[in-house]
Amino acid sequence: MTRCIIRILVLSIALISPIVKAQIKKIGVPFITNYNPKTYKAASENWDVLQDSKGMMFFANHFGIMQFDGVRWSIVTQPENKSMVRSLAIDKNDKMYVGAQGDFGYVIQLPNGQYQYTSLVKLLPESARNFGDVVHTVIRNNEVIFFSYEEVFIYKNNKIKVLKAKVKFDDFFEVNREIYVLDNAKGLLQLKNNTLATIKDSDKFAGMKIRKIFQTKNGLLLLTQKNGLLTFNENQLKPFVTEADDVLKQNQISTGIQLSDGYFGIGTRQSGLIVIDGSGRLIQHINKQMGLQNDYVTNLKVDKEGNLWVTLKEGISLIQISSPLSRVLDTSNSETKIYCSQIYQDKLYIATDNGLFWMDWLSYKNGKHENANFQHVSGMSENVWNIGVFGSSLLAFEKNGIFEVSGNSAKLLAKTDGAWKGILVPNHPDLLIVGGYNGMYLLKKINNSWVYQNKIKGFEESSRVIETDKNGDFWIAHGYKGIFKIQFNKTFDAVSKVEFYNQKNGFPSSLFLNTFKIDNQILFGTTKGVYKQDSNSKKMILEPVFKKYLGMENHIRLLKSDNQNNIWYVSGENTGKMTKKTNGSFDVEELPFRKLRYLYVPGFENIQTTASGDVFFGTQDGLIHYNTIKNKQYQTKYKAVISEVKCIFPKDSLLFSSRFDVLPNKTKEACEEISNVLSHSHNALHFSFSSLFYDEADATKYEYWLEGFEPKWSEYSLQTEKEYTNLPENEYVFHVRAKNIYDVVSEEAVFRFEVLPPWYRTIWAYILYLILYSVVIYLIIRYQKSLAERDRQQLILNQEKELLRSRAELNEQKLTLEQENMNIIRENLETTINLKNAKVASNTVNLIHLNEILLSIKELIGQMDKKNDVNVNFSLLTKINKLIDHELQGDKHWNEFEEIFNQLHDNFMQRMKTTYPELTPRDMRLCAYLRMNFNTKEIAPLLGISVRGVEDTRYRIRKKLQLPSDANITEFILNF
Predict the structure, then answer these.
(1) Which residues of 102-139 are buried (b: 16+ CB within 10 A; e: fewer)?
(2) Where are the beta strands (DSSP E) in 648-717?
(3) What are phi and psi of 215, to 5 degrees?
(4) Per-residue pLDDT tens digits for 825-867
């Protein structure tokens, strides 16, 4: 019975941990990408990792469930009690089950991208709620099992069965859909019918602290925490001896994973990751010194691309175990640049900018990494540009000269201004030409040692790149000038002929030219493909084979053949291998080498191959090894995802996001109400996107297309965000897809949304416009009717007006006749007045003349002398004189004058008397004469006074009229 149970256990435990199709290289250290807490902005501790059906990575972090989409990290949800997450499991519908500290439950993604956590602890009785960390979560059939050290919880049909430990549980295992629990006191227990039952001899496993169990061809492989590895076969436990026993026993095993090819990955608490094969040989020991950021491994997971995710007590590391490339020397944290590498006498030498280094290659290749560290070759500490085997000697070419290397020391053969490279003279294996900074040098092999001879005369150019053709001519490439073809004299101590080729000879440019030797043919690398010299015209022309496979648009930086008829090249930023087929054509392979982009030292691209299939690439990032036997699937499918969508204006408002607590609605009902129909004020959107491909994720490029706004896809770029502003009303679909470093295009992601028109272009607005239009039409019709009515009324009015006008014309004609009569009367009156004026003027003139005569007579009478003229009758003269005075002062003529004057001058006299009553009759007469515009001389006879008298009278009248001194009395009277 015992054997039967053990056999069942052995058969079932084989499926405890899925055998993941992944490999890990033995040579070198795989590429490692470290994500520290500063990068993912969460707690340092991570306990579990899983990948959903889309390819999204999730991690059990101290702060909650952490998501990584290849570009962005975010905490997507937390347990209700805000405790750390310890374990994760996911079903085929991407429903995650979560084990936390004192809590467990499940997580679903809502339509708005948010993840909603639902605790299942509320289904437990109060007595079962006091438990610690749920360190394992397993989905089996239609039930979920949550494991803590105090209790096991079986969730099914929304009910939970609780199995309590009498003391404490230690660990548990899923075996072929069966659950086994390791109890500290009872040993191995099996879960059957919701109870834990002991198996026979189960106490044999008690206290062993087993952390993982794997099925091997020799039985079960048990990983214990402190006692290393054990095998269980035929009811017997035996130690499984490995090359890593000391490390495993001293550093405590924490977890493990079974890889393909019989490899096992073992995580430790104090020494990182150990990889062994099925025989116990150490394949890899990746710890903090080798690039892992922390030595405490908490869990291991291989993703769909074959990358190994390592969760750590501090951080997360991604180890690209499926890549055929690995680092032999990791110089990412130093300034070392590798210019060349060479295997010589089972030692690997590397030429760097800090000198020459070597390591025991056989030990390193066999996995004995602790005895295979790079050591400095003494005597060389400057830039070593090249190393090569010439005969049985290893020579190094350095800034200070030429060295011969033996073991871990170097001997100076010749001190020069600088040496680039050496090349044997064809048909003269004892002669070596060395290209230097300023010309070339000759070395000769004497007594099996290379001896410096002299500097070669006749050529002073830098000679870093040198090749020889089948005719024994030397071709030297100068990167900034062109190509030199050199012929030496018979003693090789001087140059006999130099030919120079540049753009004038057919090259596309004189810059960045290189020369290579492939199949005994001299080829030239240019900025526009591979060229060769035409044997007839001597012009440089495109080489047709390389034109076909490498094109004519890339800078050919390196061509190198190996002993398997492969041609290695660096074209632009791409490294590749051309493998010749039996029909003479080539297969071109570039995908495995995409990681090498931008890693080479510009101008010093170096590829070293060996007969055993090892290939070395010298880069700024260390020495990289390539294994041609190891194959990786590069055409794996993956998805692009839209990580976040938010409206920019009027303020940032998220429409879709998985980030925790960035959207207000966390319930499923609330999210179902979310609509991607946006008001016109929210017509500016920001999209964040990524791809679920994690191999060199930073090099993944994206293209996008907003259907309904843009006519076509954008160009590929590294941009992972896109904004659109001022989108017009329309229905839109945002498309995005990715292209990884292997040129594999992802499945596209889409986000559909609609921008509504502004309120003034909505259906309700158009209805309003229709109503307003109808109202306007109605008003226009009504207005037209009112105009017609008004026109009718106006016509009637016009007719009435016409009648009135006719009457008015008649009246006007009547008035015109009356006016004409009046004018005739006025003309008659004016004629009468004029006649009277003429009469007044005539009378006045006559009066003036008469008065003048009278005054003259009076003056003559006054001149008579009464004494001398006795004969004169003076009494008569006196009477005559009196009569004259009476005549001059008489009013007879004045009264008549005044009457006519008032008629002609609008009652002037009466108005003057009324206005100025103090005026005397004489004053009035003077004013009348002034009104007639008479002067002083003309007025004096009329008044019968002298001119002086008239002046005095005028003065008195001014005072009575109260005129100012500057006023003209005549103008005043004329205007009165």
Answers:
(1) bbbbbbebbebbbbebebbbeebeeebeebebbbbbbb
(2) 653-657, 677-678, 685-691, 701-707
(3) -90, 130
(4) 777 766 666 666 656 656 665 665 666 676 677 777 777 655 5
